[in-house]
Amino acid sequence: MAVFQFMSFELRKRGAIRPSCPELPSQCDSQPCMNGGVCSEGWNRFICDCTATSFTGPTCGKDATTLTFNGSQHMLISVPEESRTQTEDVTLRFRTTRPLGLLLTTSTEQSADRLELAVAGGRVRLTIRLGDKEKVLVAGQGLNDNQWHTLQFSRRGSGLKLQVDDDTPARADTVLGKQNILEFRTMHVGGLYHVEEEIQMTNTVPNFVGSMQQFSFNGHPYFEMARSSGGGYGGQQ
């Protein structure tokens, strides 16, 4: 049986109406987000953004999972079925002394599509290829300083946005192939290897050497998910 609730309204001058419910107090006044987390107002609750910190959890009070890569290791993430997306949101924190290293790339056996993020020349370089179209964006500089840096990438169809830390975002609106649909089945973090033959598949970007935290792809915090499930990351020793 459906339950309905009715809200009373009070007539005001000039024919306007307003709900008679009292204004809710600010949820962020108590400063619930710890360790540099940023608080925002939700519906009758606070929301802590821990993206630019080394912490996670509802109030940024839990140490974030940190993976350290030595150049012979990588993390392979396989999604249950072929993904086809027109929007992506990627967040990743990294620390390195190397000017060149692969952070993330997607792959599929069905096409040459890929979304790749790498440190290149001490900057973050994004390469996205859909069908026969490819676009490159770069952001940041001097990022191989052994300090933590936060990168955020978002795509909405043909609109691209890449940002590092609090720098001005790099943006592009570009024509991509295949109705702007990215196909992928796997994500490679920190390196790209052909497991069966144990050979490196990319000659253009070496494997990453350094540490990573806070990897999230379309809302899925994969490092935290791997820790919760007891999963790990692999590589050639």
Automatic annotation (TrEMBL):
<protein>
    <recommendedName>
        <fullName>Neurexin</fullName>
    </recommendedName>
</protein>
<feature type="domain" description="EGF-like">
    <location>
        <begin position="24"/>
        <end position="61"/>
    </location>
</feature>
<dbReference type="InterPro" id="IPR000742">
    <property type="entry name" value="EGF"/>
</dbReference>
<dbReference type="InterPro" id="IPR013320">
    <property type="entry name" value="ConA-like_dom_sf"/>
</dbReference>
<dbReference type="Pfam" id="PF00008">
    <property type="entry name" value="EGF"/>
</dbReference>
<dbReference type="InterPro" id="IPR001791">
    <property type="entry name" value="Laminin_G"/>
</dbReference>
<keyword id="KW-1133">Transmembrane helix</keyword>
<keyword id="KW-0677">Repeat</keyword>
<dbReference type="Pfam" id="PF02210">
    <property type="entry name" value="Laminin_G_2"/>
</dbReference>
<dbReference type="InterPro" id="IPR050372">
    <property type="entry name" value="Neurexin-related_CASP"/>
</dbReference>
<dbReference type="GO" id="GO:0016020">
    <property type="term" value="C:membrane"/>
</dbReference>
<keyword id="KW-0245">EGF-like domain</keyword>
<feature type="domain" description="Laminin G">
    <location>
        <begin position="66"/>
        <end position="237"/>
    </location>
</feature>
<keyword id="KW-0472">Membrane</keyword>
<keyword id="KW-0812">Transmembrane</keyword>
<keyword id="KW-1015">Disulfide bond</keyword>
